[in-house]
Amino acid sequence: MKISARNSFEGTISKIVRGSVSTEVTLRIGPAMKIVSVITTNSAKRLKLKKGQTAHALIKADSVIIGVD
Q1: Contact criterion met (CB below 8 Å) for 34 and 26
Q2: Which candidate, 11, 33, 67, 68, has a CA 20 to 30 Å from the CA of 1?
Q3: What pLDDT score does 33 carry?
Q4: What is the dihedral of CA 4, 61, 11, 19, to 10 degrees?
Q5: What is the CATH number of the domain that holds 22?
Q6: If we measure between CA atoms, which residue out of 25, 5, 4 comes closest to residue 13?
Q7: Per DSSP, what are the bridge partners of residue 23?
Q8: Is there a domain that residue 29 lies in?
Q9: Could you tell me how many helices (H) and strands (E) the chain has, helices first?
Q10: Is the residue at 27 inside a domain?
């Protein structure tokens, strides 16, 4: 797969929380690192996502906001 996004991470789906409209997918990309994404439930069904499956997180953002107390 060739893509233009510079931030691409491969990992294993470790958790899926399905809702009626959206689904939360947790992708383990390292021993202590994970990425959590919320996608439409229709997309999750179309991709046939399941726990333990290898997947890719592609991050393309115009801005990243960081905050501290």
Answers
A1: yes
A2: 33
A3: 96
A4: -120
A5: 2.40.50.100
A6: 25
A7: 18, 39
A8: yes
A9: 1, 4
A10: yes
pLDDT at 69 over 90: no
Question: What's the number of CA atoms in the CB half-sphere (13 Å) around residue 29?
Answer: 16
Looking at the domain assignment, is residue 11 inside a domain? Answer: yes
C-alpha angle with apex 58: 42 to 66, nearest 5 degrees?
A: 105
Kindly report the backbone phi and psi dihedral angles of residue 51, in degrees, each rounded to the nearest multiple of 5, phi listed first.
-60, 135
Cα(57)–Cα(18) distance, integer angstroms = 18
The answer on pLDDT for 67 being more than 90 is no
Residue type, 7: N
Tell me which residue range forms the domain holding 48: 7-57
Give tens-digit pLDDT for 9-49.
Answer: 999 999 999 999 999 999 999 999 999 999 999 999 999 99
